[in-house]
Amino acid sequence: MPKLQRVPEANVEYAYGIYLLSTKHRLIKTLRKRYKPSIHGDRAWGSSFLLMDYLSERGLKKGAKAAEIGCGWAGLSVFCARKFSARMTAMDLDPAVFPFVEVLADLNGVEVEQQKADFTKLKAVDLAPFNHIIGGDICFWDSLVQPLVRMTNRALKSGVESVIIADPGRPTFYEYCDQMASKHDTELQQWYASEPDRYEGEIVEVKLKKPKKTNKKQ
Asked: Domain span at residue 150?
């Protein structure tokens, strides 16, 4: 039987060891009067919970350095910082999301670095410092497939250990996965999260393909 976790007040959710605020919470309502995210960063999306569940099972090395691309409210970054003491950088093209990131980070007693960045324009030098690149619900347009492919290629070539992307299962996501599978070690899995509600989708983890060992003649 799972442990019952009592939330401190109304419109606060508890999932995977962190507190999250619903859109009806008084702090979120106040922030929305001043900041208006314009690129879908207006709530906690289900794919973030898929990644929380996935990483809870797979784990991250304590103190790993990771970037969450297209972070929105960055619940995933807060989770990784809380559970794994990961040094997280929350990246988003829309700076209006960062006040929401600050509130969630403060609520959970962690620090999350914020960076205004378009993941489609990240260079190798921008990606090299990270052990992992993670993101959910970021391949939702046809025009984002090739930029995500190029970003992944640059990341892995620059030394990033893995790129992990979650999605409900859009055709654009599968197109990305197909292109990754033709070049890199790619693991695509159906996944579901059970907190705070049930969410279903897909997760792909992409790693640089290791060269095959050849037996040399003695």
From this structure: 12-207
Number of domains in the chain: 1
pLDDT-wise least confident of 28-37, 62-71, 139-148? 28-37
Residue 191, beta-bridge partner list: 201
Using an 8 Å Cβ cutoff, are 20 and 57 in contact? no
**Per-residue tokens: 94:** 């829309």
CATH classification of the domain holding 142: 3.40.50.150
Report how far residue 45's alpha carbon sits from residue 151's, in angstroms, rounded to the nearest whole number: 22
* CA gap 66, 69 in Å, rounded: 10
User: Residue 16 in contact with residue 56, Cβ under 8 Å?
Assistant: yes
pLDDT in tens, 41-97: 455 678 999 999 999 999 899 999 999 999 988 999 999 999 999 999 999 999 989
Q: Would you say residue 216 lies in a domain?
A: no
Q: Are strands 185-193 and 132-136 parallel, antiparallel or unpaired?
A: unpaired
Q: Is residue 6 part of a domain?
A: no
Sign of CA dihedral 164, 88, 141, 128: negative
